[in-house]
Amino acid sequence: MRRSTEFLLGLLDPDSPGYVAAEDVEGLHGGAVRAWQDAGFIAREPGMHPSPGCPHCADGVPYRLGERWLCASCRSTVEPEHLLAWAVDRASVIRALATHLRLTGGVRMIGDGFWQLGTGTVADGSVECFCLLGGVPPADAGRHLGRYVRLLVLHGQAADPEDKPGRWFPLVELLTEDGSLAARDLADLLAVRGAVGYDSETGALRVGGMIAGEVPVGSREALFLECLAGQLDRYVPYADLKREVLKRARGSAETEEATFCQKLKSRIKRKYVPGIDRLIVTSNKADGYRLRAVAEL
């Protein structure tokens, strides 16, 4: 049945014809097609097929001879239902996705097969959501995505989410075996596990390519993360962290080492990276702080 969900997603690709034929309605994917008809994603009433073929030889083109339709190649009779097609309403699918995820702000198409779905709210803030139906984003997609610190992109099977901003989630995982939308909420889709990285030039802390938050470059919070990232997945003693932060900031502080570090971490959590507790850990032996190499948000 998984092939049926992939078949349905293929219908959404801007490079696909955007319709189903009689053999699809009656064939292996018939149940999924009917489910989408019930949902309003595929038309219930057919129109004329824009380029009908022969169901017998798959090579010829039907032509009319009196009251009959014949294949120009094999001369077989082509039944009237094979001259019909049921249109796919991509915009209805997009609107249903936005409603399903309880997004606000309205849906709009940015480019061919690329849609902005709206804004969602989860426990630790808001996230802007997009949908890429095809495999390649339009040329100006980066400009739109770059406006948001936290974003989710639902994508088709052909898309390559590597080295792209935000959380990329495959659309196929949002469909059940019968083609209906799965009972998954926005927070579930945002959960991401991957490599942790800190960019000292921008102050961005990422997990699996998704920005977990940004701290001001040059601040003590940024220097704190920079020290931890320099010894990724290793405990750095509080004394070493305090000494390095103050050395790089050219400052001083009378606060005890562990308290100094704890206050920096607390400010990062409160102001910049709400999920920092999943990324920075300590031990019961007071070994200091460790920035995980791999984590889940």
SSE arrangement:
Elements: H1 2-12, E1 19-21, H2 22-26, H3 30-39, E2 47-48, E3 62-65, E4 68-71, E5 84-87, H4 90-100, E6 108-111, E7 114-122, E8 125-132, H5 141-145, E9 151-155, E10 167-170, H6 186-190, E11 193-199, E12 204-207, E13 210-214, H7 220-230, H8 238-249, H9 257-271, E14 280-282, E15 289-291, E16 294-296
Parallel strand pairs: 8-9, 9-10
Antiparallel strand pairs: 1-5, 2-5, 3-4, 6-7, 7-8, 11-12, 11-16, 12-13, 14-15
Q: Give the low-confidence spans.
A: none
Helix content: 25-40%
Largest sheet entry: 5 strands, mixed
User: Which class best fits the helix and strand makeup?
Assistant: alpha+beta
**Count of alpha and pi helical runs:** 9
How many individual domains?
3
CATH class of the largest domain: Mainly Alpha
CATH topology of the largest domain: Arc Repressor Mutant, subunit A
Strands of the widest sheet, in order across it, are 6-7-8-9-10
The separation of the N and C termini measures 31 Å
Number of strands: 16
